[in-house]
Amino acid sequence: MNYPKFELLFCIEDESDPSIMLVKKLIEKHPEIDASVFIGGDKVGVNPKINNMNPGYEAAKYDLILVSDSGIRMKEDTLLEMVCAMTENVALVHQMPFTCDRGNFPSVMEKVYFGTSHARIYLAADLFRINCPTGMSALMRKKLLDEVGGIKAFGQYLAEDFFFAKSFTDRGWSIRISSQPAWQNSGICEITNFNNRISRWAKLRFAMVPYTIVLEPLSECMVLGACAAWALNVLFQWDVFVVYLVHILAWLILDWILLNVIQNNTLPFSKMDFVVAWTFREMGAFYHFCLALLDPKIQWRTRTFYLRWGGLAEEVSPRI
Question: Is 161 a catalytic residue?
Answer without folding.
Answer: yes
